[in-house]
């Protein structure tokens, strides 16, 4: 029988549960996978409770359930659902690796703080998604898929009628007409979910390649009557449109929106302000009882003008739901996927039982935004 490699790296995860966060960056099955790679796991008490994983579940597979202070003292690498706070950065010992979505595109001061603290920071948002070797590490894809699924359920719950067509003794109820704006990972998952629930689905995205993807799922592609064929950006993301193109797009979407009962917006540009796809005029043109779910709502704004995190009802009776935390509401599955993503990122940097940054390696060069040349394993051993 094959023996488990000697553990050289200690990986720690904290309890990040809050009013908006139920996910955990390590699940028991991932503990087992990491042990086979020679990684010992530590997890803060209660970290998995909101995702339906108990401390006993972790202990059974060999993880050490302990306090945050214990993790900070012993871990070589830390995995996060979100990112460590500035206060937490001050507590992390130099030489430690931090893996997570670090908002490195827009927060240079934060990245500088990680570097000043002597931390090696791996920003998953910088993952080159087009590389086949990176697919299992792609947290954005996995979490957006969960988000798209949940967005449809939230919309269906808020909508005052059925999604599918129903023939009853009292008459036939027409199916809901749903528009998905943004046909990336979240949008495609939303299309599939809405179709399974029986809605008549139309979708739109500025990327030319999205038309065939939308139609392959049985949805219609929205014809705005304008040419934005240069919409494809780098790495599979939609590029940012020019001001003139945005104005054209918004006006066309506003006109078409009035035809639909439910609108779900999923267009995000990583680390940047989301594009506005539906203006107040467009919202005002919807009929009473219509529902909008804006998955891009954030402090930076959303896809819908005036949308805020939470639910609001306009004077015209349109329900607008700003919902950036949808993945957290499917916490068990979202945690399973996220845990695999983070663990595979960690495993990528394991070289002969040690954590190393390899200069010239495409994934390393792309994701490592702060790096200390101190060896975390040696630092730990010196302190023992």
From TrEMBL:
<dbReference type="InterPro" id="IPR007698">
    <property type="entry name" value="AlaDH/PNT_NAD(H)-bd"/>
</dbReference>
<feature type="domain" description="Alanine dehydrogenase/pyridine nucleotide transhydrogenase N-terminal">
    <location>
        <begin position="12"/>
        <end position="147"/>
    </location>
</feature>
<dbReference type="GO" id="GO:0006740">
    <property type="term" value="P:NADPH regeneration"/>
</dbReference>
<comment type="similarity">
    <text>Belongs to the AlaDH/PNT family.</text>
</comment>
<dbReference type="InterPro" id="IPR036291">
    <property type="entry name" value="NAD(P)-bd_dom_sf"/>
</dbReference>
<dbReference type="InterPro" id="IPR008143">
    <property type="entry name" value="Ala_DH/PNT_CS2"/>
</dbReference>
<feature type="domain" description="Alanine dehydrogenase/pyridine nucleotide transhydrogenase NAD(H)-binding">
    <location>
        <begin position="156"/>
        <end position="322"/>
    </location>
</feature>
<keyword id="KW-0520">NAD</keyword>
<dbReference type="Pfam" id="PF01262">
    <property type="entry name" value="AlaDh_PNT_C"/>
</dbReference>
<keyword id="KW-0547">Nucleotide-binding</keyword>
<dbReference type="GO" id="GO:0008750">
    <property type="term" value="F:proton-translocating NAD(P)+ transhydrogenase activity"/>
</dbReference>
<comment type="function">
    <text>The transhydrogenation between NADH and NADP is coupled to respiration and ATP hydrolysis and functions as a proton pump across the membrane.</text>
</comment>
<dbReference type="Pfam" id="PF05222">
    <property type="entry name" value="AlaDh_PNT_N"/>
</dbReference>
<dbReference type="InterPro" id="IPR007886">
    <property type="entry name" value="AlaDH/PNT_N"/>
</dbReference>
<dbReference type="GO" id="GO:0050661">
    <property type="term" value="F:NADP binding"/>
</dbReference>
<protein>
    <recommendedName>
        <fullName>proton-translocating NAD(P)(+) transhydrogenase</fullName>
        <ecNumber>7.1.1.1</ecNumber>
    </recommendedName>
</protein>
<dbReference type="GO" id="GO:0005886">
    <property type="term" value="C:plasma membrane"/>
</dbReference>
<dbReference type="GO" id="GO:0016491">
    <property type="term" value="F:oxidoreductase activity"/>
</dbReference>
<keyword id="KW-1278">Translocase</keyword>
<keyword id="KW-0521">NADP</keyword>
